[in-house]
């Protein structure tokens, strides 16, 4: 994506009229997702309900924003969060027909680079207003990927001096400045210095550091970040030139190393080599003269900025996610972020398709719903290769879904690479909770969640648990209530329930809740028959205190009061 380090942007549109332009921009940034307003845009990659809340959330998540609407709308929408401390991602307003591209925010985050890229793609002009960019044709305070700016505040004064008429000389290799219109003079007092050496900041120098330094580090150091800083200082190397930390694969799950990489704001990569000096020799043999390694630390300096993707491997990530009941509005932001970062997506095909759309570079592994353990093992195999993997469940992954299978596969494995994978379980809205919310609050007091499937547990256990739950007067939520291979179990379950509950007990039937064909019915236990239920139906049976009363629209509210026994005064 251009020459910047910018993450995939969000293209936000308000109506169908902007979709064609959005698609043209998406061709420039293939990993970008198009966010369309629900009810107006059906062909976007993601839908949203509120423009303002969506834009502010994207901004606070450091996501570049390309909004196809008037610039004033974007400014007023983001105004409440502009004074908050933190990141400032690029924000651009683009005319719906692509006739104007206006960079609004993120001058130091590459917004003008993006504006020029989009202007070329849309055959228009970018409305660049930054003085330095207009005068010199480049933003000196935003060096390209692989380089880091030394001091921002000193840099602003430096550029101000240039704009006031001072000349400048360039020291070191700065190929991206070759086409810039700088007022160069070999005798100039001001200098742009490009190099990895440690230097005292000066108002007469703009320091830019190539990220060409690799530090191999041992995982048994008490404070790896401090050890790296000390080693760099002793070697007169600027910490801003650090491009990567390298460690042994055996240390892949070491939290101290990950904390060090976070503290130093660099990637952490891993290699099979055992000692720091061996790591640098194995990974970067084409180095400048090697530096003397310190205890537990070895430094290597490459002639060019590091291509981190070619150094060792990263720690694999495996996220087990819950999609909720189906609608993207019920999907938590953390789940959406995992889907966006994934290299591989695994799951039952129906659920994988619900999680889309996907980019062309994402690999889908769709399997039968009964192949849970094979799917879990496959996920670990992919993640152990350093890939970012997502295993998809509907509802919540920990409720009769893939989280338990993934953990069971890990528990049974003696493969150390599997145990070093960065494993995360992300929650989702379970079907019972989604159905209950639509009906009101039938699970408002203590309740029991049960699966009526006897595929993985004996039917005798199901009957025993159901009987005890009914004795305890718990509201009941039935998953997997009936199927063609299990046509009689629901009828037997209802026989047990009716031994403890009266025929007027409220029953809520939610089918495909959160999906386009959703239906919700409120009936009584006396009216309920197995023929009214299928595998896609959630059955909620009230306790002795569950109440029903009419809504204004002719339907019913259902709730189980939070008190039990005597009603509080």
TrEMBL record:
GO biological process: cobalamin biosynthetic process; methylation
Domain Tetrapyrrole methylase: 318-528
Pfam families given in the database record: CbiG_N (PF11760), TP_methylase (PF00590)
GO molecular function: methyltransferase activity
Keywords: Cobalamin biosynthesis, Methyltransferase, S-adenosyl-L-methionine, Transferase
Pathway: Cofactor biosynthesis; adenosylcobalamin biosynthesis
InterPro entries named in the record: 4pyrrol_Mease, 4pyrrol_Methylase_sf, 4pyrrole_Mease_sub1, 4pyrrole_Mease_sub2, CbiG_N, Cbl_synth_CobJ/CibH_dom, GbiG_N_sf, Precorrin_MeTrfase
Cobalamin synthesis G N-terminal domain boundaries: 54-132
Name listed for the protein in its UniProt record: Precorrin-3 methyltransferase
The species this protein was found in: Pseudomonas graminis
Phylogenetic placement of the source organism: Bacteria, Pseudomonadati, Pseudomonadota, Gammaproteobacteria, Pseudomonadales
């Amino acid at each position: 994506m251009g020459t910047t380090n910018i993450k995939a942007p969000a293209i936000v549109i308000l109506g169908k009229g902007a979709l064609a332009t959005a698609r043209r921009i998406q061709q420039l940034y293939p990993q970008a997702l198009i966010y369309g307003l629900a009810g107006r845009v059906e062909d976007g990659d993601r839908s949203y309900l509120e423009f303002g809340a969506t834009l502010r959330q994207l901004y606070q998540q450091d996501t570049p924003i390309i909004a196809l609407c008037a610039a004033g709308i974007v400014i007023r929408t983001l105004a409440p969060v502009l004074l908050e401390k933190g990141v400032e991602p690029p924000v651009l307003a683009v005319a719906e027909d692509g006739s104007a591209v206006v960079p609004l925010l993120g001058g130091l985050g590459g917004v003008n680079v993006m504006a020029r890229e989009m202007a070329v793609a849309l055959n228009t002009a970018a409305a660049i207003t930054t003085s330095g960019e207009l005068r010199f044709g480049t933003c000196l305070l935003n060096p390209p990927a692989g380089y880091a700016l030394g001091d921002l505040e000193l840099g602003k004064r430096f550029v101000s001096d240039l704009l006031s008429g001072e000349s400048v000389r360039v020291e070191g290799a700065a190929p991206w400045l070759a086409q810039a219109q700088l007022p160069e003079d070999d005798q100039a007092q001001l200098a742009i210095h490009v190099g990895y050496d440690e230097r005292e900041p000066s108002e007469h120098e703009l320091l830019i550091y190539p990220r060409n330094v690799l530090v191999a580090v041992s995982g048994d150091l008490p404070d790896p970040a401090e050890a790296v800083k000390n080693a760099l200082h002793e070697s007169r190397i600027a910490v801003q030139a650090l491009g990567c930390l390298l460690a042994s694969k055996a240390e892949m799950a070491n939290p101290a190393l990950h904390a060090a990489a976070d503290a130093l704001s660099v990637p952490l990569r891993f290699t099979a080599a055992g000692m720091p000096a061996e790591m640098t020799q194995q990974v970067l043999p084409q180095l400048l003269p090697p530096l003397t390694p310190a205890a537990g630390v070895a430094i290597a300096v490459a002639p060019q900025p590091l291509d981190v993707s070619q150094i060792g491997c990263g720690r694999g990530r495996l996220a087990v996610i819950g999609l909720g009941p189906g609608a993207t509005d019920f999907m938590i932001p953390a789940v959406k972020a995992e889907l966006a970062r994934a290299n591989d997506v695994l799951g039952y095909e129906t659920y994988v398709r619900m999680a889309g759309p996907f980019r062309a570079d994402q690999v889908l592994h769709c399997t039968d719903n009964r192949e849970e353990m094979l799917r879990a093992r496959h996920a670990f195999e992919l993640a152990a290769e350093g890939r970012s993997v997502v295993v998809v469940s509907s509802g919540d992954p920990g409720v009769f879904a893939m989280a338990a299978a993934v953990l069971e596969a890990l528990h049974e494995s003696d493969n150390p690479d599997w145990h070093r994978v960065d494993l995360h379980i992300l929650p989702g809205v379970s079907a019972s909770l989604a159905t209950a919310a639509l009906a009101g609050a039938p699970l408002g007091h203590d309740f029991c969640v049960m699966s009526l499937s006897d595929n993985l547990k004996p039917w005798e256990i199901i009957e025993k648990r159901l009987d005890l739950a009914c004795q305890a007067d718990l509201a009941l939520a039935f998953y997997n209530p009936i199927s063609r291979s299990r046509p009689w179990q629901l009828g037997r379950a209802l026989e047990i329930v009716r031994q403890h509950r009266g025929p007027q007990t409220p029953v809520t039937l939610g089918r495909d809740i959160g999906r386009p064909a959703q239906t919700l019915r409120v009936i009584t236990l006396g009216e309920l028959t197995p023929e009214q239920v299928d595998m896609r139906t959630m059955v909620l049976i009230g306790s002795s205190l569950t109440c029903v009363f009419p809504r204004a629209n002719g339907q019913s509210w259902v709730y189980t009061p939070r008190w039990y026994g005597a009603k509080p005064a």
